[in-house]
Amino acid sequence: ISSGENCTMKTTCGLLSGGNPGARRGIRLTLLTLALTLVASAAFARPPARSSVRMIWNPERQRVVLFGGSTPADSSRKRTYMNDTWEWGGAGWTRVATSGPSPRAGHAMTYDPVRHETLLFGGVTGAASGETWSWNGANWLLRSSGGPAPRSDAEMVFDSARNVANMCVSSGVA
What we know:
Elements: H1 2-16, H2 24-40, E1 54-58, E2 63-67, E3 85-88, E4 93-97, E5 108-112, E6 117-121, E7 132-135, E8 140-144, E9 151-152, E10 155-159, E11 164-168, E12 172-173
Antiparallel strand pairs: 1-2, 2-3, 3-4, 5-6, 6-7, 7-8, 9-12, 10-11
Helix pairs in contact: 1-2
C-alpha cells in the first residue's frame, strides 16, 4: 500500500498546484475519487515505487518489460537498487523474475526483433556497469561483461536496417 500512497500523494499534489482557486472544491472531489481508486487497487501486484527504471515494449509478446531502478533516497541519501523484472500485458503487472542482472538503476534497454529478446546494458549501483544482458521472456542471460565503457544513463535503440543495437553515449561514464 505504501507504493499506492506515494503515487496518490504525487498525483494529488500535482493536480492541486494550479487552476482557478474558486474551482478547487470540484477538483478536490475528483481527486478524492482518484485517491480511493488507487488505494483500493493497492492489493493487486505491481512494481514498488522506483526511479531510474527502464521499460521496453516487446511487440511480439505484446508486453511491456520493466527492469530494475532504485528507491528514492532516504534521509541518509541512501538508495536501494532493484533487480526485479515485471511485465505488463494490458490487464495487470506480473513479476516474472528476481534473478539475472545485479540490482541497478540508470541502465539502457531496447528490444531486438532479430534475436527476439530485450537487451540491457550498463547501469549503476554505486559504480557503473559494463555488462550486456538479454531477456527472452523467461530468463536473463549475461551476453558480455566487456565492450563499451561502463556507464549509466545511456539510451539504446535498435537499428532495423543494420540489425544492430545503437547506444547514445551519456555523461555517466565511470
